[in-house]
Specification:
By secondary structure, this protein is of the alpha/beta class. It has 7 helices and 9 strands.
């Protein structure tokens, strides 16, 4: 049995097979949960562990790396990693690295927005049960992102949020009329949102 720790994200047809091969070879494997529980439960039965969240998995990985320091005792790394994150030291260090590399002064709270836009509205009342990130990225790309910095998609509703018919789900911004129309046609094909009942919302366990 190897002492190497392996984490695995993405348990679709290919990912499930790869992860199964890893755990059957005797490696300690941790997987991140997915709304499709079947592959997760199968891997857990085979000896894998399930991480509660990507945050927890990242902390455990950081903890293992911290334990590379001979002065840190085995098992203390995770506690140190949690303290670094909770105290704000990780954020301060990241900001220092950004400043050293040349910060652009971008304010994510007030980004520059394209002068042309349209809104995508909820087709019915209910709960947001699905947000298709791939489709939203495709729509943003048609609008001109990332080449055009002021183009993109501004989400107004989150997964699990209750919405009324006609409520704004998101806004699409573009600089050029043609890009705006390309994005509009992509939205007409698929908005990237699904509205349904509360029980249809994927349940995800998140560690705070």
């Amino acid at each position: 049995m190897s002492s190497e720790q392996i984490g695995f994200l993405g348990l679709g047809l290919m990912g499930h097979g790869m992860a199964k091969n890893i755990v059957e070879k005797g490696y300690p494997l941790t997987v991140l949960g997915h709304r499709n529980r079947a592959p997760v439960e199968d891997l857990v039965k085979r000896g894998a562990k399930e991480a509660k969240s990507a945050r927890e998995k990242a902390l455990r990985l950081a903890g293992r790396m911290i334990e590379w320091d001979p002065a840190v005792r085995c098992g203390q790394g995770l506690e140190i990693a949690r303290d670094i994150l909770a105290s704000g030291r990780a954020l301060r260090r990241m900001n220092a690295i950004i400043a050293a590399q040349g910060a652009t002064g971008f304010d994510y709270r007030h980004p520059a927005l394209g002068e042309r836009s349209f809104e995508v509205l909820a087709p019915a009342s209910g709960v947001v049960t699905l947000i298709n990130n791939q489709q939203l990225a495709r729509i943003a790309g048609h609008a001109g992102a990332p080449k055009v910095k002021s183009a993109g998609v501004d989400l107004c509703c989150k997964l699990g949020q209750t919405v009324a018919r006609g409520e704004v789900l998101y806004r699409v911004y573009a600089r050029y009329p043609a890009d705006l129309e390309f994005a509009r046609k992509a939205c007409q094909t698929s908005s990237g949102y699904a509205i349904g009942a509360a029980q249809d919302v994927p349940q995800v366990s998140v560690e705070f």
